[in-house]
């Protein structure tokens, strides 16, 4: 049974190849850590993968190392995901497609013995 047209995969791979969801080169760095609120000179932008999408956050090294999710509301998270999509030059639908491709890639080795 081969019901999936090859084009469906070709389209996904194209999006996946074109978009690095963890690219923060165009993301603005904030003045304080968005997780703990500390102000310090060595803050950096990091990405956080959520079920809504990938968002970018300014975090201090401590919070970034702890990999803790910042305490943002659902509405804020949606906004942050949308903002990061615009930093990448894509829309949220393209981001979702890229995340699907990423999930496929990660789950593939585990599903194959
Ligand atoms: Zn912090
Ligand atoms: Zn961003």
Question: Short description, anyone?
Answer:
This protein is mainly α and 113 residues long. It has helices at 6-18, 61-66, 74-88, 92-111; strands at 44-49, 54-59. Strand 1 (44-49) and strand 2 form a beta hairpin.
List each distinct ligand once: zinc ion
* Strand order in the sheet with the most strands: 1-2
Strand segment count: 2
Largest β-sheet summary: 2 strands, antiparallel
Structural class: mainly alpha
SSE sequence, one letter per element: HEEHHH
Q: Quick one: overall form?
A: globular
Strand content: 5-15%
The radius of gyration is: 16 Å
How confident overall, as mean pLDDT?
83
Low-pLDDT segments, ≥5 res: none
Query: Fraction of residues in helices?
Result: 40-55%
* Termini Cα gap: 22 Å
Total number of distinct structural domains:
1
Number of helices: 4
Report on the structure:
This protein is mainly alpha-helical and 113 residues long. Helix content is 48%, strand content 11%. It has helices at residues 6-18, 61-66, 74-88, 92-111, and strands at residues 44-49, 54-59. It has a two-stranded antiparallel ribbon. A hairpin with a 4-residue loop joins β1 (44-49) and β2. The model has no long low-confidence stretch (mean pLDDT 83). One zinc ion (ZN) binds at residues 33, 35-36, 38, 59-60, 62-63.
């Amino acid at each position: 049974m081969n019901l999936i047209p090859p084009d469906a995969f070709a389209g996904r791979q194209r999006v996946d190849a074109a978009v690095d969801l963890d690219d923060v080169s165009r993301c603005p760095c904030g003045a304080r850590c968005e997780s703990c609120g500390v102000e310090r000179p060595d803050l950096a932008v990091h990405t956080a993968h959520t079920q809504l999408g990938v968002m970018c956050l300014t975090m201090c090294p401590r919070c970034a190392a702890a990999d803790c999710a910042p305490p943002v509301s659902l509405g804020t998270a949606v906004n942050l995901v949308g903002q990061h999509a615009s930093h990448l030059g894509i829309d949220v639908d393209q981001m979702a497609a890229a995340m699907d491709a990423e999930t496929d890639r990660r789950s593939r080795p585990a599903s194959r013995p």
